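Teaching soon. Invent one.


***
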Amino acid sequence: MPKFPTIPQMTVVVPYQGCAESFDDTLASVLQHRPGDCEVVVTHDGGYQDPYALHDEVRFIVADSDDWMDQLRAGAKAARGRFVHILSDGCRATENWIHAALGVFEDGDIAFASPVVCCPRDRHPIHTGWASGVGTACEPKRMTTSYAGDRIAGVFLDASFWRRDVLRTTLRSFGGTDALEGSLVVSQTITSAGGKMGIAEDSRVLSGVSESQLYQRTHANQRHTQALIDHFHGGGWVASLIRGMNSVFTGHLNVAFQRATAPLAYRWADQVIAAVETPQTDCPATTLDAKTRLHAAKTTVRRAA
């Protein structure tokens, strides 16, 4: 008989991306440390065979493709918990990490939250989300306050906590496939709509990549990330050239040219962010303009709270 909780408080979504070793480590850590009122959902493209016969403890959901963002959407749609935790394969849960995060959502204004993501070797904190700095458009940053405010701009999706309805809607605000770019868009969609981000200071997740790998990943395509941020906050050639010079002065020579030429990617950013369907509104399921998307997001934030 399946051991699923009747009314789960939290749904943990673990997308399977094809690497059995890292996925097994993640799923084992979740099953070891999960509380009784938590359900576990594994999303995959149909190729995962459940070699450990976990169907009594884990719900397996087939997504439309092997794309990571598609798997997140499938997991959010299937989630029965009021809250959803995304944990990418390679990351590992630790003791009490769920209950430590739930306390953040006692503030009704908090729409999403980040755990403290730690180095897997010595467990020192790496980040509690991402921020835009003087020298870079996006980089990992750690804060120790329970409310991130404007200092941390958003979460990395691969280790994040959400109100379920907020997650379902905001995942539709991004039409691309890149996990980092998706993290920027969904975070900014919610904060632009008035939702707040929280930090679960006592919730620890071990990173699936090293600190240097994470910084390399965030610095890899700063033209795209800056263009996405400018979509929400404004930009232009003058601002972009100034940012490029700031990147040079702060020693980020590898990202200076990319940030300076961000307007070349503005059209791409508009197309990626415009691919949104929002069934929670009375609007037909179609591509919505920015004003309508913002209204839909505000409505969802209020309902979820």
Observations:
- The radius of gyration is 19 Å.
- Residues 290-304 form the longest helix (15 residues).
- Residues 2 and 56 are 4 Å apart (CA to CA).
- The mean pLDDT is 86.
